[in-house]
User: Fold this.
Amino acid sequence: MIDTKKLEEIARLIRIDIIKMIQTAGSGHPAGSLGITDILTGLYFGILKHSPQNSCLINRDRFLLSAGHLVPALYATLAQAGYFPKKELLTLRSLGSRLQGHSHFDCPNGVEIGAGLLGQGLSVACGKALAAKMDKKTYKIVCLTSDGEQNEGQTWEAAMLASKYKLDNLIQIVDRNHIQIDGTTEEIMPIEPLNKKYQAFGWVVMEINGHDFNEIFTSFKKAFKTHAKPTVIISNTIPGKGVSFMEGNWDWHGKAPNAEQTEKAIRELEKNA
Amino acid sequence: MLKSTRSGFGKALLELGETNLNVVAVSADLPSSTKIADFGKKYPERFFECGVAENNMMGVAAGLALEEKIPFVASFAAFSPSINWAVIRQSVCLSNLPVKIASSHAGLLTGPDGATHQALEDLALMQVLPNMTVVVPADYNQAYESTLQSINIKGPVYLRLTRPDTQELKNNKFQVGKAQILKPGKDITLVSCGPIIFEAIKAIEIFEKETKKSVELINCHTLKPLDEKTILQSLAKTKKCLTLEDHEIFGGLGTTISNLTAEKYPVPVIRMGVADKFGESARHESELLEKFGLDANSIVKKLKTFRL
Assistant:
């Protein structure tokens, strides 16, 4: 049994860090970061085999954040898990910081790939999955892409390859939050029916509520057992989740809250404790 | 015997496959033309065919490299790095991964396929990326040697390869990063790279016979890191420089040498290459070299424009 109360509490702390980080940095992507917080919490506090003390362990499960703009959520999760001190989080986007505005490959700190230009992460994940098969390793490769990222042709090139090579050690999470930088996904570039598209590409498709820990854990349990097919988990999320004035509003895709908004956001998150 | 640089690469890759189990090949539907087909046949478990999808091919290579593999990514220079440059930039160079990019059919030497397939910009695209080593073998043996040596280079390497069977150099002591003085001389320094260097060799013979002056010929096969010392030592002697390449003069060898001389030893430099133009089809590549003014006779004329 998973302890959802405990996971909710961890996710709440991560969300507070995300808000503080982006406000301090003065720029960043809060809505998507808050949206994927529950998935990351589930992954790093129950689903993935990983070790913050020995982060580059050969048999660790790999988590690749392809949507590099959501990296504040990854940094906050990694710090929460003990990869590096929490006080470093506030250095986000500052000169000389390891916490770059979009991620750089930094295995010791738990960051598996450099990402920012969308559409590349799933290809890199395929390369890692091929290497794992070659070496007869049983670890899993989990790659999180955004729904806006489904606009990129390269995502579909990788989707074909994953199916061709029967990469059942690869799990893609599509963060389906329905927003991208300049509007809703269906205004900018409609991607539905996403599930049917991936089915046609030969993937096992699951759809979940990306804020429900039971659904998150159950879907990964199934995904880790699939045979001869890659899995995509379409994770329906609310952008800005946890902060009422950000929820569902694409205007918060890529801007930092000011001091007053930060205070309001943190007050809301603290109230939920 | 005439042999292509792409064949030298293919032979070396096959040998590396035997000696290094981490060497893998990543393809985008051109294994025969890029000469990695034999590797694929011998080591199918280490050969990954990505289809006509150069962006994905490069990302897959990055993923393999992150897991301790040494991927050789083979395609045509007009596709890789032209199509997948952003993947090379972010997923390979930013993380400084040991991905070896072998791109054939570079330059006018590609011949009949025409402008779309004659990559004249690839050196510009590759030189500008941090962490990248850029090598242009002049013949079969140098392609073979540079492929073998590439796995000892920690980061990414770009190998510029060509389609036609071309001549072989006599002096073949080849070390990536170390420019070769193919022929000593005292009046003009001619710096070149790639199989077009054989036009320079022909031209120098004619020029020296006609003028009684001598030309120092440098094979600058590694554009990055540049062997500044060898080039500057030669220029200190000749004080005149001609560059010759089967590539745009913007961003290629000519630009690299001009940058060096401008900063460290200003001397007159004439750049020969393709000047802000696309290529075109021709039944034989020699017709193209003539039309674009890169054949031996055109080189002789340019050498004569220096005040001697």
